[in-house]
DNA sequence: CAGTTATGTGAACACGTGTTCATAGCATTC
DNA sequence: GAATGCTATGAACACGTGTTCACATAACTG
């Protein structure tokens, strides 16, 4: 009953050393590849360590080797958004391939800036920030703490900050041209949260491309990047008697909501009565029953570029900041 | 050019102390609520710290206060699975409410056990394991390292391991009775990965409830818990001429895939020609166009219980292990 | 055999913090 | 006026590790 109830401490290298009858240094060396240590001794130590369930404390190790904690914070968008969820999955897996441990923040709308600043208490190897609007204020703190920052879905010019971003305007223009080529002339835009640059760029690209075709927008509407928001917006448009024959949606989730509303509330056929094009190319867009024409915001390429910039930045902390542009691609399916 | 290229070190408390003309102890006290420190002095220190961008190193702090690193590892399922994605989002947000930082692992099928063992190098406050099959081997290591483990979607009896699990058999039985009450007699089961206990329990519940109604399964099939898998399985069933009038699917994603296949490949009307019931109640199930009848595997309640068990375990590390059962609820919509 | 090199090894240091210890000043109480 | 209690403060310690330092032994080289 000596230790009852109390949380006993973690096994330490000193305890392993005592049990194996060696010095503590030897234990540390046993877990360090390439260190001078007698083979038999190393095996003895590893065996004892295994029995005791010893594992070097990563916190203490990270404290020792300054500048490499192997922790990387990811500030994600709302995971109800499928695009963010799929990106996160790829990102988490890829970071493990680099030996990094991802600390995940956000995942919901009310992401408090306080949380982001809080995680900076850890000596992070890097901070990956997906979209969002807190970038500017966070960047300042990152700079002071010498923590590299990688921005995805947004561009910012600051020392130590690298960016990966889709050419949103170009993607929007591709959608417009595809709709016009299909014979559509009364085109509408359904945007997302207006204060995000992704939405602004897609809208600008939409309007510019439309002007080049000698057309002007028939409708400019906004929702919240969600299926439900897209559904409600489309229902309101239909009820308001809006006359459109093509709609470009700022992301796929809203496009799917619009399709559901157009079919169920408006009795419309797609694409006969209304052409729809989305943005992102989430996995759901390819599902039979949706078959959504969309602009691919390539996730694999995005994650790949994030990792490339991350590695380069860790290699050369003082290098110039860089922006990796992701080329959009029009995926032709059945709704345009 | 003195420091060019080299990654300059993080600001430390000693540097703040020197800049503010106080002892290092005072700096530490300035960031500790309730410590004896002259008010003016504290304000001075905080001001200097702000200017220098100082932030106490959480690694060193965690090393100091043994037993509380505020790090919690989450081993999630594949995030392509919407249920896992939605659970993760809630979990991440809730853990922040407890002041914990979530380190996320997995998110893809090939979750290597090596990764899970690797994260145990950190002195975690706890490990949350969603579903999966690596539980047994991990539990042993957790026990040796005195790291509390919380299992979700799976039950295991071991000291220091708490579990949260839906009563899968009961949920399956509810689905069966709803189908029978609708007049269905030729019922099939579309399961997920067979070696997971969630699938086994749901199938057992299905068969038992069916037997109680004096019926036997018309079809027992398996897919991979994905939309695409459900679609393919349903197509094969239709091509094979299977005679069923009701299908219970082990999760919603497969149920949605089955619906798409039944409509597009088989030309069937739902629920007129075929009743379908899913499991989980992901947000998509409620979308117009799907309107899926399903057994709710309550996510809010699950996360809430995980947090309760976590708090209780941190409060009393030696307490008996506990299993929190989540009561399933039949959500009646339009597909049964 | 003398001289150089490669291999082992334990003691000691550094990482950056929170907290205890001892001491000192000051205000309050009897 | 002495005794007591509260506030404030810097030095010192502990946390658990990786690595350097000094030294010892063994293995080659000429």
UniProtKB/TrEMBL annotation, chains A, B:
It comes from the Bacteria. GO terms for molecular function: DNA-binding transcription factor activity; transcription cis-regulatory region binding. Pfam families: LacI, Peripla_BP_3. Residues 6-59 form the HTH cro/C1-type domain. Gene3D superfamilies: 3.40.50.2300, lambda repressor-like DNA-binding domains (1.10.260.40). Coiled coil: none annotated. Keywords: DNA-binding, Transcription, Transcription regulation. Residues 11-65 form the HTH lacI-type domain. SUPFAM superfamilies: lambda repressor-like DNA-binding domains, Periplasmic binding protein-like I. This is Substrate-binding domain-containing protein.
